[in-house]
């Protein structure tokens, strides 16, 4: 907490007499009973504050044990949070009993003067704070922010001469951020307060704008002097994010559980007529169309309207073609297709040929989000990027073994490869480096399609020739789950994009299995992530 919290303030050996500070090693000061809290912050009332001194108590005569720096940091964080909730008397008692102070006395004065709009006093406070700051230039930045607020408030009050004096005699001589000063001078033309607030994107004179100003000013002060705004909430949020990032099993959309009644599978349409069979499917970005490709000896491609069940296009450029792979352009109006006989086409929804690339023996395809670049794995154990607009191409990934298939993450940064005899590899397409090799899967020369999935695509799944489905966290090379049930090679997996807890797998055993989270088991009964197949679909 010390490293992320209050910034390593050294314990002070003995207190100095400070009228607004009533907490030092458990000693209380009667001067704190006025309009300023014992924690150094302004209060609207200070009634009902229990006395810390008792004639019958001997605790006041005993010197309390000094708290560690870590304990003091925690107390300050709690005190700031309670103060934000308006529990000021509770903060007073906490500070008095612990012997801590919420912030440096100079910071307290500075805070109060800013919130009261006493700009000359706030500027004077900066000289006192200067010795406590790490960066000398920070004082000038803070003074600029103070004067800017002062200038805007004068303008809103209609005190144009006073505002002009601030601009000429105080802001300009700083010789800091002259571009901003030119913008500020333009606000002199605003005749109405509403016009000023709109053009300056400013909340106007008062608590809201001064609180926002104070938040900016606090960023220049060490945490030991004044805690950053809402520090406890920030640290708790960071802790939750860190634990979530480190958890290999976190899939936050599963928190509400799986409702079996609301997620039922049913046959929607039967699309018939593929004489050669179907070896690859690709959905359009809006799920309106589905393209089906055949095996190596098939030269035809079918484009179906899934909503109506009608065949929109049956495309074949040549009987010599082998169209075994396809990918949709992000606009949903074009697609690319190809095969290992050297065909590589870009077509529209009616199957009309828009462009072609000769001599590329395509194994797998993917269109990037820029709408121009097409990635294609070929028989040279590589993935190249092809631009159909300027007819340029470049090498992106080079493996030592055949790339049987690949898929790309939603943001286009990562690629997941199934490499013959090697398994599943994760590549960074931007840096063009191999990030990770995932272990466990059995990958020979079968075409197996893996996928990203889960919340934020934190997980990776792949089929395997040992009849299993393997799941990894993206950052871990070892599998966190092995799903059994299929009886032959699992050649494709697909994670539900809307329900992060559902995944489907297809196998050469003629079945499609849908997987979901297993029922809760006691931690002593199971380790790691568990799942079970919910539905088994038999395919003829």
UniProtKB/TrEMBL annotation:
Source species of the chain: Sinocyclocheilus anshuiensis
The name under which this protein is listed is: WD repeat-containing protein 26
| PROSITE patterns according to UniProt | CTLH, LISH, WD_REPEATS_2, WD_REPEATS_REGION
Question: Where are this protein's WD repeats?
Answer: 271-302, 483-515
Where is this protein localized, as stated in its record? Cytoplasm; Mitochondrion
Ranges of compositional bias, category Polar residues: 22-32
Pfam families named among the record's database cross-references: LisH_TPL (PF17814), TPR1-like_2nd (PF21889), WD40 (PF00400)
Q: Which SMART domains match?
A: CTLH, WD40
Alphabetical GO CC annotations of the entry are:
GID complex; mitochondrion
């Amino acid at each position: 907490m010390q490293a992320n919290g209050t910034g390593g303030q050294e314990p002070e050996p003995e207190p100095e007499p400070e009228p607004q500070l009533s907490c030092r090693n458990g000693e209380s000061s009667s001067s704190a009973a006025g309009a300023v809290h014992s924690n150094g912050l302004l209060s609207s009332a200070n009634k009902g504050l229990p006395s810390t001194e008792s004639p019958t108590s001997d605790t006041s005569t005993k010197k309390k044990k000094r708290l560690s720096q870590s304990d003091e940091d925690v107390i300050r964080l709690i005190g700031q949070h309670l103060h934000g909730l308006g529990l000021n008397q509770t903060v007073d008692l906490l500070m008095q009993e612990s012997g801590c102070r919420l912030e440096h006395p100079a910071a307290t004065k500075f805070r109060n003067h800013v919130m009261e709009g006493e700009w000359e006093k706030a500027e004077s406070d900066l000289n006192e704070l200067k010795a406590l700051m790490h960066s000398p230039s920070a004082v000038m930045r803070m003074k600029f922010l103070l004067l800017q607020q002062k200038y805007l408030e004068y303008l809103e009050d209609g005190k144009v001469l006073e505002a002009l004096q601030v601009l000429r005699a105080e802001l300009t001589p700083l010789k800091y951020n002259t571009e901003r000063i030119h913008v500020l001078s333009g606000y002199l033309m605003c005749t109405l307060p509403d016009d000023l607030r709109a053009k300056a994107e400013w909340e106007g004179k008062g608590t809201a704008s001064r609180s926002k100003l104070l938040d900016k000013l606090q960023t220049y002060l060490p945490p030991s002097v004044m805690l950053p705004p809402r520090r406890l909430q920030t640290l708790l949020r960071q802790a939750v994010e860190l634990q979530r990032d480190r958890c290999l099993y976190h899939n936050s959309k599963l928190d509400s559980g799986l409702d079996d009644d609301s997620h039922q599978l049913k046959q929607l349409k039967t699309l018939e007529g593929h004489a050669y069979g179907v070896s690859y499917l690709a959905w359009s970005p809006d799920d309106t169309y589905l393209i089906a490709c055949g095996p190596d000896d098939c030269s035809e491609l079918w484009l179906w309207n899934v909503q109506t069940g009608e065949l929109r296009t049956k495309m074949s450029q040549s009987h010599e073609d082998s169209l075994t792979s396809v990918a949709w352009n992000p606009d949903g109006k074009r697609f690319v297709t190809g095969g290992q006989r050297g065909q590589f086409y870009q077509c529209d929804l009616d199957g009309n040929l828009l462009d072609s690339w000769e001599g590329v023996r395509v194994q797998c395809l993917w269109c990037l989000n820029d709408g121009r670049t097409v990635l294609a794995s070929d028989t040279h154990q590589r993935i190249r990027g092809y631009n159909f607009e300027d007819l340029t191409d470049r090498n992106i990934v080079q493996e030592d073994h055949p790339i049987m298939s690949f898929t790309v993450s939603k943001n286009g940064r990562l690629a997941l490869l199934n490499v013959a005899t090697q398994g599943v590899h994760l590549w960074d397409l931007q840096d063009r480096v191999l990030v990770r090799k995932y272990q466990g899967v059995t990958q020979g020369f079968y075409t197996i399609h893996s996928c990203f999935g889960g919340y934020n695509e934190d997980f990776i799944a792949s089929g395997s020739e040992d009849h299993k489905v393997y799941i990894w966290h993206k950052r871990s090379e070892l599998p966190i789950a092995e799903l059994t049930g299929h009886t032959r090679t699992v050649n494709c997996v697909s994670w539900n994009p809307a329900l992060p807890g559902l995944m489907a797998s297809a196998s050469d055993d003629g079945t499609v299995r849908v997987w979901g989270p297993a029922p809760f088991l006691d931690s002593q009964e199971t380790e790691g992530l568990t799942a079970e197949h919910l539905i088994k679909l038999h395919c003829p």
